[in-house]
Amino acid sequence: MTSTLADEITRDFTATTFVVDGDNTLLLWHRKMQAWLPPGGHIDPHELPDDAAAREVREETGLEIELQGQRGMWGNVRVLHQPHCILLEDISPGHQHIDLVYFARCRSPASTVRIAEAEAGTYR
Q1: Each residue of 54-112: pLDDT tens digit?
Q2: Which residues pair with 24 in a beta bridge?
Q3: Would you say 114 and 61 are in contact if contact means Cβ atoms under 8 Å apart?
Q4: Which of 94-97's residues contact partners 24+ apart within 8 Å by CB, and which partners?
Q5: Is 20 in contact with 27 (CB distance < 8 Å)?
Q6: What's the rounded Cα separation, in Å, for the pair 97 and 42?
Q7: Nearest C-alpha neighbor of 38 from the set 12, 22, 61
Q8: Rounded to whole angstroms, how far apart are CA atoms 92 and 95?
Q9: What is residue 65's predicted lDDT score, i.e. its pLDDT?
């Protein structure tokens, strides 16, 4: 059996959240990427994508958020928050992220932000 390019690529699911407050958008300094990025990270096994989006924001900033859209039911089937878009990102040779991108607003005051130094650096 011959291997295909798809056999050589590993993919992880991630969730990224743009937290917006009026004209302001929360961005964190990503040490490895050396860029300002929204909070986000890997979706844990058995974790729902929209729960991962909220968890990553909470872990990285201490903020509680409300994702855009609503959860609900469609008959007897759960409807999750729908991502704004889904990106396929090349992370390194042979490795990609399938990134579910959400938008949210803060439920907690912006003054309660606590940047997790292990997750994001401060730009100086």
Answers
A1: 999 999 999 999 999 989 999 999 999 999 999 999 999 999 999 999 999 998 766 67
A2: 21
A3: yes
A4: 94/8, 94/9, 94/10, 95/9, 95/10, 95/11, 95/12, 96/9, 96/10, 96/11, 96/12, 97/11, 97/12, 97/13, 97/14
A5: no
A6: 9
A7: 61
A8: 5
A9: 95
Instruction: Identify which of 40, 117, 44, 50 has the alpha carbon closest to the alpha carbon of residue 83.
Output: 50
Contact 14, 48 (CB under 8 A): no
Rounded to whole angstroms, how far apart are CA atoms 1 and 51?
A: 39
Place of tokens 């729908």: 82
Which pLDDT value is given to residue 113?
Answer: 72
Give the chain's count of helices (H) and strands (E).
1, 10
In degrees and rounded to multiples of 5, residue 111 shows phi and psi of -70, -10
- What is the distance between the alpha carbons of residues 120 and 39, in angstroms, rounded to a whole number? 9
